[in-house]
């Protein structure tokens, strides 16, 4: 793992959260994107070498909608950048980590992604990210 790629924050209202984080970080989001497969709309802010990803549900059955219903708004996951997501998935499985998806899938911000089960990481949902076009 190379660096913290981003911290994902679940929000109820993306427009309101964009306004709040724009004020907090003194910058505008550089990208807003719908990820239909996950039932979310995302917004990204650059903070130094890392990013903040705001995630708002677009469907009641999405993981973010369920998360907010159960836990409320707040930090949802931490994402780490990796050079080769397939190799990292294999390495982590060999180390005994449970993954939510054995194969990477397309995520927001031109990334291939995979998630570790929170029970494998002391209650933290961990995302692995690799650039699609590297």
TrEMBL record:
Sorted UniProt keywords: Metal-binding
Domain VOC spans what residues? 3-131
Q: Does the keyword Zinc-finger apply?
A: no
The family this protein is said to belong to: Belongs to the methylmalonyl-CoA epimerase family.
Record NCBIfam families: metmalonyl_epim
**How is this protein named in the record?**
Methylmalonyl-CoA epimerase
């Amino acid at each position: 793992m190379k660096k913290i790629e981003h911290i994902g924050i679940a929000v109820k209202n993306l427009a309101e959260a964009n306004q709040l984080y724009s004020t907090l970080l003194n910058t505008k989001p550089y990208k807003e994107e719908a990820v239909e497969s996950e039932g979310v709309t995302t917004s990204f802010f650059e903070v130094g070498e890392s990013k903040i990803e705001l995630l708002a549900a677009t469907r009641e059955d999405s993981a973010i909608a369920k998360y907010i219903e159960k836990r409320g708004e707040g930090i949802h996951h931490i994402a780490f950048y990796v050079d080769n997501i397939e190799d990292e998935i294999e390495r982590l499985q060999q180390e005994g980590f449970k993954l939510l998806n054995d194969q990477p899938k397309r995520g927001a911000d031109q990334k291939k992604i995979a998630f570790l089960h929170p029970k494998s990481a002391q209650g933290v949902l961990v995302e692995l990210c690799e650039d699609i076009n590297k």
